[in-house]
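To whoever is on call:

I kicked off a structure prediction for a single chain this morning and the downstream step that reads the tokens threw a length-mismatch warning. I double-checked the sequence; it's 608 residues and nothing unusual in it as far as I can see. Pasting both halves so you can look.
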Amino acid sequence: MKDWAPTYSLGSNIMFSLRTHWRAKKSTLILCAIDTVMSVLLPFVRILLPKLVIDELTAGTAPAHFATVVGGAAALLLILNYVKGYTEVIATHSVGTIASIGSVFQMMEKRMDMDYEALEDPASKALEEKALRASESNHTPAHNIPRTLTRLISNILGFALYGSVIAVIHPVILVLLILSAVISWLSLSSARKYERETRGERSALHRKLRYIQESAKSPERAKDVRIYSMSQWMKSLFSEIANELEARSGKVATRNMVAQLVDGALILIRDGAAYAYLTYLLLRGNISLGDFVLVFSAIGAFAGWVSGIILQSSELLRASAEMGDIRAYLDIPDSSNRAEGIPLPTGDWLPPAISVRNVSYRYPGADTEALKDITFDVKPGERIAIVGANGAGKTTLVKLISGLYRPQTGSIKVAGADIHEYNRDEYFTVIGAVFQDIHLLTTDIAGNVSQAPPEATDYRRVEECLKLAGLYERVQAMPHKEKTLLVRQVNDDAVELSGGEKQKLALARALYKDAPIIILDEPTAALDPIAESEIYSKYAELTKGKTSIYISHRLASTRFCDRILFLDSHTIAETGTHDELMRLGGKYAQMFELQAHYYRSDAEVDQK
């Protein structure tokens, strides 16, 4: 992932955008094409109308003929103006909205579906930040490529049409206008290049500001902010980063301003010279008054077409760069098996055995390995406890077994097959897990347990799982029982669960899934001793017919497991039953006695 740095050509990004809009709403692109033509014809008819009036008046034509010619041109102007007004609304507003909605959906889908390992990778997060910046609203350049392309083509067509009119009078005027346009282009290109080169640095600063903003409004961090008086420090940090971002953005704005000043000065010089020469031709009688009016207007409009080509070309390059950021995030490669995998274990293969051989894992950017040369077997239906100090690699190990991570060396087999031979999503159905971080859906309790909509939820099964998890009585006391809504930030009448109740709900969720492998990562950390004891007493029932892995740093909680793996220094230091490890007198026994000492000390204090 760290070497993932794709590049996308301008043409590729344009085609990607056009295909996206075509799939979303074909009529939008059709109307953009019509708007392209209208953007050239409408202003041309406007400058042509005065010439027709002057030519008719100076020629002394009959009133009927005058009315027919001028009236026809006026009617055409009215029709074009109406069509232009309709198509411009679509090209200006609908394009960005359609793309913005599509982009948000694509990024949300990518975030939920990409490999979990890639999701956590710092390089992936950097790409995501750039993609978010490029798609944060319906006004971003990346979302408006069809609109920008429409304007660019309109300006090119206008340049060709008006340039032809001017060239008929004298090619020198056209050369002067084009030469000044080239200088403006070079000046603006230099400014845009600097903007592209510094985009990564500015995105990193935006990411830091976004994190501080999220921290400031996070209820989970609010207690620390108040107790430790962090608000002033956070405000100072925010101001420091914001000032740095402002300084870097100011440099970009300054370069753009200089480029615009150069463009303005050139417009003044070239238009002044062109108008002077055109006046000279009129005074000498080399052109008619009608042609003078037409070319005079064409020169002013021509400058607009030239500036439009420069501006829209630059905008298209900018939009392409931002679209490249979005696509780079959407195209982050997955290493897991998305193709058809081998069949999942059934029948005699259930509950499955697990075999871990010489597994090592290092997090991206880390200096040391999180796990080193891990080897062990779990028999079908066996209950394994993985214990050790914080940071020993317990959670990393179960994420590897779950298929969320992929080991750099070694292999993990379930039911005799490497887990990566299974289709990734099918393999996830084999795992029922309760992780340390518990997140609730903005739906009712039943939906949080079943992870499914009401019509697909087995409510009798929900009740059974809530009973096993020890949450049934609490739920029955709620106003709407299993249909009680959760997450108050979204649902005004929601119920807030305590940390222990969330853990019980997560346990009920894992039980409802009824997967043949169940993984419990510190499932009782937020429970009181009585609730914890109830879970221990039910553990055999909870894991009946399953291969189970239990993680804890409380060694006393592992005695109900068949075997214990003690992790130390990121590898398996000791293995055996509780009694065997106590007789061994190694690090497990030392840690157990140390924890037991504190429990005994607390009990002695309570007795006094």
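Update from on-call: the warning came from a stale cache, not from the record. Cleared it. Sanity check on the structure: Strands lie at 354-361, 371-378, 383-388, 409-414, 417-418, 431-434, 517-521, 547-552, 563-568, 571-576.
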